[in-house]
Prior knowledge:
By secondary structure, this protein is an alpha+beta fold. The chain has 10 helices and 12 strands. The protein has helices spanning 74-85, 109-124, 131-141, 145-150, 185-195, 207-215, 218-223, 230-236, 239-249, 271-282; strands spanning 7-21, 32-48, 55-60, 93-98, 153-157, 162-165, 172-178, 226-227, 254-257, 264-268, 289-295, 301-304. The strands form 2 sheets. Strands 1, 2, 3, 4, 5, 6, 8 and 12 form an 8-stranded mixed beta sheet that branches. Strands 9-10-7-11 form a 4-stranded antiparallel beta sheet. The protein binds cytidine-5'-monophosphate.
Amino acid sequence: MEKAERIRVRVPGKVNLALRVGGHRADGYHPLDTVFQAVSLFDEVEALPAPRGVRTVRVLGDQASLVPTDESNLALKAAQALASYAGMRQPGVELVIRKTIPVTGGMAGGSADAAAALIACAALWRIDVAPDELAVVAAGLGADVPFCLMGSTALGRGRGDELVPMLSRGSYHWVLALPDVELSTPEVFARFDELNPDAGPAPETPPGLLAGLASGDIAQVADNLVNDLQPAAVSLRPHLADVLAAGVDAGALAGIVSGSGPTCAFLSENEDAAVRLSNALAGSDLARAVRRVCAPVPGARLLSC
Ligand code: C5P
């Protein structure tokens, strides 16, 4: 008897080292100039065979109940988009998502699962699709999905989906604090619009950040972290200001809201400093969870087939 196929894809979350935001466009999106870095906090997506026309998703993990499993699930949408792209009629799949990336945390968790589903379904359905074609399907699903495929460190323009891989030296030790508050991405962008009614094109990523990444100068990277959505996120959830201050007081080189938040990311000088910082934050009651990760790591990858 033929052995059942077991296709698993591992995909990382991301932080934005720079997130420069311009005034909103006619399509509702905002022009970005951003530097993504993929971090070692991974979701896993498994694709199992299912009868023709049957596409389902199950979500496992602490925050599983927060992820929809109906047709609004982004991984299911990714499966549908890939089937349409390949001209396949109703191929079946059972997706199982094991979540570790925080849900609606500002770390592209939903986008990561969509990127992983694209790779997993391509393998299950034996679709031979080139990476640049997959990136086009990914961009149709959401602004962060192409980066979740690519991983490592990349400059993003447009909606964040026009990517250029970046030169980056060294290994970065981050501590992530997951505050017990909720924030929705559209809500944060809307507050950004209120706070910046005259915003024009996206401002540039600080040259010092690019130089620091190219030379592996962690202190220079820390000095140049910037997130234009941070004032909006903090004004909606003032608790984030306390979390950011606590991380810096406890020895971080710098702290920043990740993407649209509420996750706060702290850059440490080295691994020992990151261990001390994560212990301090874990004992502080400021966050529901604290995670220590390193970066950069590759994007969505097949684990076995
Ligand atoms: O593309 P995605 O569905 O992940 O984006 C979620 C929301 O974030 C969008 O509906 C929009 O409100 C906001 N967004 C934006 N500009 C971007 C990316 C996202 O306004 N460049």
